[in-house]
Design brief:
It is globular, with a radius of gyration of 20 Å. The protein contains 18 helices and no strands. The protein has 410 residues and is mostly helical. Helix 6 (93-124) crosses helix 7.
Length: 410
């Protein structure tokens, strides 16, 4: 990363919002995981499966805990990004992991930009393409400032607060029957495996797996001596992400439980806010959707560049500019196309399904057989066991996600 960025990142001016880098890393991971796609999927599946969808939410949270605790600990102690440590474990593994992460991230970033455009359309009534252009420019502006990581952290805090506050307001307004949701968690009815796979891929898979840990490394919080801080950052990000999952589901379930008829699955989220708050609800939904899109665009572009910098010298020497190019590319493609082609999203989803088990396998192999890469640290057996169990689940999920590739060209 640019040396100017590293130096100035630690020198916030008095009187401005100060965000500890550890908290910034946690929020980057949590906010990246709750993008427009996640909101849309949660609303659609809640309409379809009602209280039973709570089971999918809980399973995705459990997988999230198992994956993130292992990823943050291994990368944090080693002080090496995922692709760099992968190359030291298996020759070529870092390049393979980078290709998968970048492919999925670039496609999904077009979807994130689309989400910002739709958000501003609902909030202000402007054309979604114009909204996407405005959002792309704002995201680019963040990476033009000298203390870019400080700016990213501040934006994540502000937009994260807006997103969480408005979703909590939805929960309060709808007063969901929590007891039914609790029953659905342990005794789901008619819930297929697809919603669980979708949530895991959209909230843990792809670039999201590494966003917080890579930000942690850029902040210099690494090594065994920082283990307590690394764990605290991981748990903070996990808890914020889990709270978002829970309150978003409860908010949508509260509307569904009243018997309100929501629009088709492509607009279920907006319909829920409309049912809860009336006409103003569409504007509130627009703000939530825009905030979700912006945080995901920033997290996606930043994390993608952290992978590319190991193999592309211009990215390494001009990191901020590389992030700007990624944001600009996604914005231009969406404006030109007017939508994110569904076939691209299916393909990216399948790729993300592969990224998680491949990357997690490398992380767990380091814990098992390459203690030299983590300063001889004796890895906790319980954490390793939980990680292996999560890997088995994600490996099965990867096989299932590959079946969706056949639908791209059908």
């Amino acid at each position: 990363m640019d040396s100017v960025t590293r130096t100035d990142d630690r020198q916030a001016r008095p009187g401005r919002l100060r965000v500890p880098p550890l908290f910034g890393a946690a929020l980057l991971m949590a906010m990246s995981a709750a993008g427009p796609g996640f909101i849309t999927q949660t609303a659609s599946f809640t309409v379809l499966y009602g209280a039973s969808f709570a089971c999918a939410v809980v399973v995705s949270m459990i997988i999230d805990v198992a994956v993130q605790l292992n990823v943050w600990r291994i990368l944090g102690i080693s002080g090496q990004r995922a692709q760099d440590i992968a190359s030291k474990v298996f020759p070529g593994a870092g390049q393979v992991l980078t290709v998968f992460v970048v492919l999925g991230a670039v496609v999904f970033n077009i979807g994130n930009i689309a989400g910002t455009g739709l958000g501003l359309h609902n909030l202000l009534g402007i054309d979604p393409r114009i909204g996407a252009a405005i959002s792309g420019i704002l995201a680019i502006a963040i990476f033009l400032v000298r203390s870019v990581l400080t700016a990213v952290d501040r934006v994540m805090v502000v937009l994260g607060f807006v997103k969480i506050a408005l979703i909590i307001a939805l929960v309060v307004a709808t007063a969901p029957p929590v007891g039914q949701a609790a029953v659905g968690t342990v005794d789901p009815k008619g819930l297929p495996f697809l919603p669980i796979l979708t949530l895991i891929g959209g909230t843990v898979g792809g670039f999201i797996t590494y966003s917080g840990a890579h930000r942690l490394i850029d902040a210099g919080i690494t090594g065994v001596t920082n283990l307590k801080r690394i764990n605290r950052g991981a748990w903070t990000g996990i808890l914020v992400a889990c709270v978002l999952r829970i309150v978003l589901f409860l908010g949508f379930f509260g509307v569904v439980a009243t018997g309100a008829t929501l629009a088709n699955k492509n607009d279920a989220a907006g319909s829920a806010f409309l049912a809860a708050f009336g006409t103003v609800g569409l504007h509130l939904f627009g703000l939530v959707f825009w905030a979700a899109g912006m945080t995901s665009v920033i997290g996606n572009s930043y994390t993608t560049a952290t992978f590319l910098q190991s193999y592309v010298k211009p990215v390494r020497t001009h990191f901020n500019r590389a992030v700007i190019v990624l944001i600009g590319l996604a914005t231009i493609v969406f404006i030109a196309a007017g939508q994110t082609p569904q076939s691209m999203l299916v393909f990216a989803g399948a790729i993300n399904g592969l990224v998680l088990p491949i990357g997690l396998a490398i992380i767990l192999w380091v814990a098992l057989r390459r203690r030299d890469l983590i300063a001889g640290y004796r890895y906790p057996k319980v954490l390793l066991g939980v990680g292996i169990a999560a890997w088995l689940f994600t490996a099965y999920a990867a096989v299932e996600s590959l079946t969706s590739l056949g639908s791209i060209f059908s």
